[in-house]
Write a structure and sequence with these properties.
The structure holds two protein chains of two kinds. Helices cover about 70% and strands about 0% of the residues of chain A. Chain A is built from 14 helices and no strands. Chain B contains 15 helices and no strands. The interface between A and B is large, with 99 and 104 residues.
Chain lengths: ~300, ~325
């Protein structure tokens, strides 16, 4: 979208853009952006080309142009380590914590956005501040609490997907609340008021009017939360065992004592990244709007 | 109230008398209670995953919680401030490495925030005026941000391999900058490797936020400046940067907190034990807790980290708010 030239009524604006940038600026722009693009491309290029190389080639000096290409890493990744199982674990943990936090956050965000009540500011501050706390602060106590719960009730949480889902709420929940408050604030109140005049109660107004109106925002928050959970490393490295291991930790398994299957690691990294990158790029416009609304405000 | 509840029962046409008024108060109470009901699930979960763990964390930071007590940690002996003294005793090994990783983390954070901000703002300014392919380039620059943290970092780990990595290929074999193959993941270079990896993942976020912030700068400001004969550089200095100030204040704080707490970059890049030159605080606390099984000291370190971040954030907000107020006046 080209910027609309703002034309003052008096001046007929003979040139479309009065600030034609000087040549030196154009060259600076060209060079800087090319360098940045190359910096961005470097790991992506390495990831893609290496994932198509046979093992002997990734164990030799790096080559920019692969001498031969093979798809076998993409076949082997599934049998070298139980990648499908890790995939399943990641998908279940990330989508469950996303679902829980988004549903819980919708109600909370509605309250914060539409009502003035005692404790509102305190709640907002609490949500915002827990977002900045280091994850490691919650990791230890949660681990110990889970061990205790396991001892007392026999429900194992410290190494299971259920436990991981709960720990992921430490970052998915405040994040969802924060972003959704921003979204609901942007939905005109007149919609709610019209519904209230029609005799709709607050809950049914929320479910029938506000939630549908906020659907793009809710989807955005869900996708973004899912992405964050999909990429989480800290909790996953402590709170999982062989059965509950997620992708974040599972990719390490391609390194054995003798060999590091770099070609397979790169292939698996690509397979793992594609769903979230595609999701991000498809929803990019909304994601960016939501994210910046939350952080710029 | 009880009366109101009773009279509320018949749902038939609202009587216009006293009962009607109490029905009104009842519905008013209900309306007052409603936000709390809506918040209830969120507050319950907050208690479960934030408040209780935080209190437990503070509590165990006063306990001698080692591997012997892990099964039954509530019975661990009380040692008062012992863990804090242990962590902050800079003459002993643990305190020394904590102090060291504090400096490393500080240096890492300052570098990553500064570089990411520079790259992000630079790119955003250069891409402010439309040109062919701008939209595609913007999307492309966001890819590092969209990638899961560990896949991006593991790719950098591969690139930093001494014998078959792309980095040594570039600087040794392609550009002939040195004759021997340097190590990147052990020794002094590991700090550089850590910073590069983090900047690669972080700068797109700065770019994103600054780009969004620039969209709210009215274009007539630039046109007026152009009429006055201002150059590109003057426009950036006199219009763009001052207009971005509120955005930058939030951005820098967020980047600082993220990077100061960063765990996944060093953990994926180096594994459980990072080289001392690149041992960030989160990893140090992780080691103390889960490698040497000293949970009490680990908790004390986490509490200290939190206190430090709170103080920094408070001071930062105070300074920037005063600056903003001063600018407004």
């Amino acid at each position: 979208m080209p910027d609309k030239p703002v034309t003052a009524a008096a001046a007929p604006a003979p040139r479309r853009r009065p600030t034609a940038p000087p040549r030196s600026f154009l060259w600076t722009r060209r060079i800087c952006l090319t360098l940045l693009a190359a910096f961005t491309a470097l790991p992506l290029y390495v990831m893609i080309t290496s994932s198509l190389k046979p093992l002997v080639d990734v164990q030799a000096a790096f080559r920019w142009i692969p001498s031969r290409l093979t798809l076998s890493p993409y076949v082997d990744i599934w049998s070298t380590v139980p990648l499908a199982h890790y995939f399943e674990n990641s998908a279940i943990v990330a989508s469950s914590s996303t679902a829980i936090s988004v549903v819980v956050a919708i109600f909370a965000a509605y309250a914060v956005s539409r009502y003035r009540f005692f404790g509102r500011q305190a709640f907002k501050v609490a949500v915002l501040s827990t977002q900045m706390f280091p994850g490691i602060l919650f990791l230890l106590p949660l681990f110990l609490i889970f061990v205790n719960i396991g001892n007392a009730t026999g429900i194992e949480l410290s190494t299971t997907r259920l436990g991981l889902i709960v720990t992921y709420l430490t970052f998915t929940l405040p994040f969802s609340v924060w972003l959704l408050v921003g979204y609901l604030d942007s939905i005109p109140r007149e919609l709610d008021e019209a519904a209230a005049v029609d005799g709709s109660g607050p809950i049914s107004t929320l479910l029938r009017i506000v939630v549908p109106a906020a659907r793009p925002g809710i989807i955005t928050v869900a996708v973004y939360t899912f992405m964050t959970a999909w990429g989480e490393v800290l909790f996953a490295s402590v709170m999982t065992n062989d059965a509950s291991r997620t992708l974040a930790v599972g990719l390490r398994d391609y390194a054995s004592e003798n060999d590091v299957y770099w070609n397979q690691i790169m292939a698996a990294s690509l397979v793992v990244s594609v769903p979230v990158v595609v999701g991000f790029l498809l929803l990019q416009r909304y994601l960016v709007a939501g994210l910046t609304a939350g952080s710029v405000k | 109230m009880a009366l109101a509840a009773e009279t509320d029962r018949p749902p038939s046409p609202p009587p216009p008398t006293r009962a009607g008024r109490s029905r009104l108060t009842w519905s008013r109470t209900r309306r007052k209670a409603l936000p709390y009901v809506l918040l209830l699930p969120a507050v319950c979960f907050e208690l479960l995953v934030h408040i209780v763990p935080m209190l437990v964390g503070i509590w165990i930071s006063f306990k001698q919680l080692t591997v012997f007590f892990i099964r039954n940690w509530s019975t661990a002996p009380n040692i008062g401030l012992g863990n804090y003294r242990f962590a902050l005793n800079f003459h002993e090994a643990v305190g020394q490495s904590l102090l060291h990783s504090f400096y490393v983390t500080l240096g890492f954070t300052v570098l990553v925030v500064a570089l990411s901000w520079l790259l992000g703002t630079g790119a955003a300014v250069l891409m402010q005026n439309p040109f062919r392919g701008r939209g595609a380039l913007r999307t492309y620059f966001l890819v590092p941000y969209a990638l899961p943290a560990y896949t991006a970092t593991i790719t950098w780990e591969f690139m930093f391999q001494r014998d078959h990595g792309a980095v040594n290929q570039i600087i040794v074999r392609d550009l002939h900058l040195t004759s021997h193959l340097p190590f990147w993941l052990i020794g002094g270079n590991s700090f550089a490797a850590l910073v590069i990896t983090a900047v690669w993942r972080t700068w797109p976020f700065a770019f994103l936020v600054v780009t969004a912030g620039m969209q709210s700068i009215p274009t007539d400001l630039y046109e007026a400046a152009a009429v006055d004969g201002a150059g590109v550089w003057q426009c950036i200095r006199k219009i763009t940067l001052p207009s971005l100030r509120p955005v930058n204040q939030v951005l820098v704080l967020v980047l600082f907190l993220w990077n100061f707490n960063d765990f996944s970059t060093p953990f994926v890049l180096f594994g459980n034990v990072a080289p001392t030159q690149a041992n960030l605080l989160s990893l140090q606390i992780y080691d103390t807790s889960f490698q040497t099984w000293n949970f009490g000291t680990g908790s004390a370190m986490s509490v200290l980290l939190l206190l430090f971040l709170l103080v920094v954030t408070a001071v930062y907000l105070l300074i920037t708010n005063r600056g903003r107020r001063g600018a407004d006046a």
